[in-house]
Amino acid sequence: MLMREKLLPLVNALLSPERPASSLFQEVNALLDLLESLGQLPLLPDQDISKGETQTVHGLALSPHAAALCAKDFVRTVQFMRGAYQAVCAQYLKNSARPVTLLYVGCGPYAFLVLPLMLSLKPQQVQIRLIDIHVKSIDSVMRIAEHLGLQPYIAEITTIDAAHYQIESAQKPDIILLEVMQANLEKEPQLALSRHMMQQAPDALLIPEQIRVSLCLLDMDEELSTQSSNDQVNSLEHRRFDLGSILCVDRQSIHTWETIEGRHLPAARLQIPSEVPRGYSPMLLTTITVYQNILLNTYDSGLTCPRRFNADFSAGDYLNFTYQLGANPKLTVEVEPMFTSTNNYHD
């Protein structure tokens, strides 16, 4: 009970609408320290956090230690926790005759985005299913749940590659929480696993509700010289040239991909302007709608910082994007030249 008393004020602070997510660095780290002490994840003697990672047929599964460190991306952590909590509360209000069921895919060693929330909910309100590919992660989560007396909230906890997880027809989740991604949906299996889970539970609420990768022109020197307050970021957005959305992952898009087989999914066809201002470069931006109005915008997270777009193209060219599935998932592009006498692209 003493540990629960330490954890609850931290959880309440993280969920408080009065606290901006960007102000909660200390609370996230304090919560991480407490869960780390309970989970007792064995230390790595050489501090190589990549040891223990697993390369799957759909992308990289981070090692338990690397997954644990993801919590330090604290604004992302707060927004996902708030989104999960609000989604559970909203679903329970719709039907309070039974608990909301939440499937957390790739929970890592602390189930950080969900397990602490149980301190603010009752087992009659929510039942959680936790899956992860790594035995060390599942063992750690079980130790935490036991220390905190959270077993009544856990309907299932399983070590499995999520790509092989089968949802029983009588146990379809109300909410699927899945955060196994990097910026631009590279390397990790977020998209593939989202498809796999939603094909089995098409009526479930997917968190995050939407991941969008876009292409824009921006001046990185100007971006980096500007502090990332909301007002300044909004001001920067007015000085960017949005070239369009490349890929959007949400329930609707996943539904449109149901009949597509093979290793590539269709994405957008965009055109580079015939004239690009000097100093401006094409960059990829990831934006994430966690749940309703809970967002991760540019610079909120390591997931949403601009990334350089590397391709050999000229001003006016068309860019035909696809998304490559498999062990190394990523966006790919085929450049379709627009032949002009003058190249107006200035890098």
Name its key features.
347 residues, alpha/beta, Rossmann fold, five-stranded antiparallel beta sheet, disordered C terminus
Into how many domains do the coordinates divide?
Answer: 2
Report the strand count: 15
- Along the chain, the helix and strand elements come as HHEEHHEEHEEHEEHHEHEEEEEE
Largest sheet composition: 5 strands, parallel
What is the 3D shape? globular
* Contiguous runs where pLDDT drops below 50 for at least 5 residues: 341-347
Helix content: 25-40%
Distance between the termini: 60 Å
What is the CATH C level class of the largest domain, in words?
Alpha Beta
Strand order of the largest sheet: 5-4-3-6-7
CATH topology heading of the largest domain: Rossmann fold
Find the structural class using helix and strand composition. alpha/beta
What's the number of helices? 9
CATH-scheme architecture of the largest domain: 3-Layer(aba) Sandwich
The Cα radius of gyration reads: 21 Å
What is the typical, i.e. mean, pLDDT? 92
So, the CATH homologous superfamily of the largest domain? Vaccinia Virus protein VP39
Roughly what fraction of the amino acids lie in strands? 25-35%
